[in-house]
Fold this sequence. Notes:
Elements: H1 4-27, H2 31-50, H3 56-82, H4 88-113, H5 115-120
Amino acid sequence: MDNTIEIKSFQFAVHIVKLCKHIQDTKKEFTLTKQLLRSGTSIGANVAESQQAQSRPDFIAKLSIALKEAVETDYWLRLMCATEFLTEKEYASMIADCRELEKLLTATIRSTKSPEISEIK
């Protein structure tokens, strides 16, 4: 895997941490931000773990967990926007990044599962 997903997922985690801190400081909301913080930072953690996978199935499993966390993060972002804890501008920026990660993870998982790649490695 090239480092694009690793770099983007780390940058996304940094933005999630800062966003959650901002919401906690300004709106005193802690329950939803804790959920968003957990899932949003878990994406990058699982991507990082995938770099030390013991096998192709282990690599796919780690990235699959990262994808599930991205989908969960997508949910929390939508909920926080709908309940006005996020502004439309904050939401638009974060959801675009989250969905980009979902697409990158999906593409990487699919290409890793493809028979052509299996034969090469």
